[in-house]
Amino acid sequence: MTGFSFAGQWYIEPGYAERMRELIVPRLEAGKDPIPANLLSQSTPPIDAKLSRNEQYMADYFRQENGVAILPINGAMSRSGDMCSYGNESMMRWIDILNRDENTSAIVLKINSPGGTVDSTRAFADVVKAVGKPTVAWTPFAASAAYFVASQCTEIVVEDQLVGGVGSIGVLMVLADQSKALERQGIGIQIIRADGSEHKALVNGVEPVSDETMAELKATLNACRSEFVGYVRRGRAGKLTSNEVFSGKMYTAGEAVRLGLADRKGTLQQAVQRAIQLSK
After folding, report:
1. Range of the domain at 159
2. Which of 47, 148, 168, 247 has the most CB atoms at less than 10 Å from its CB?
3. What is the pLDDT of residues 244-261, one digit of tens each?
4. DSSP 3-state assignment of 156?
């Protein structure tokens, strides 16, 4: 990744970024897209691509009789998914199909997830943001990457309960130092790198992490967090009431509504009804 990451999909050459800083940074802080809409050409294609037979079957599978499609996002999120959850790539493909399906009037993302990997989360969020129909996220629990995606929906409905909630807007990395455990077992490990491979696997759980490598890791984490915050500001523009939501804390349904992380409390059925209202 090169250039200066303002937020979202804008990665710009460093020199140009510095010249544009006075324009873009204030817009991000105000919860707006980095570039004013009148300076951008319309790049979203019209929804007129005819669905294939397989795509139509998929659209019919998710869509209810009321025209609202419900997509489940369960468990940890990742690009390809696993036995307990669909992958982000599959979800993005299905959203594209439903966006092009003339019989689908709105999409509800039914989310129950602790989040997931940074990889592909931004792409998933961009697909949700680009949908040309109302999108409503309904959730009893949406943390981290799950909230990253949910924040790009038209509205967010949180189940009214004392546990769960939304938030965890932040980024972390867990490093496990195995050196002492190996030493107690009488196991000594020596890592030998080929000439010219001095940067190979510098974070391995055995060798101490140098100050330089730690600084690089921290810079990457900070960049990811800035991107996360930028997306939430964009998706919830004009709704957030406090910057405290960016500390990584989770919030209950009532707190989420009060702080602007969610629009209302309600059941899945109420979220579907809200999607129907928005589609009209």
Report:
1. 44-174+213-279
2. 148
3. 999 999 999 999 999 999
4. strand
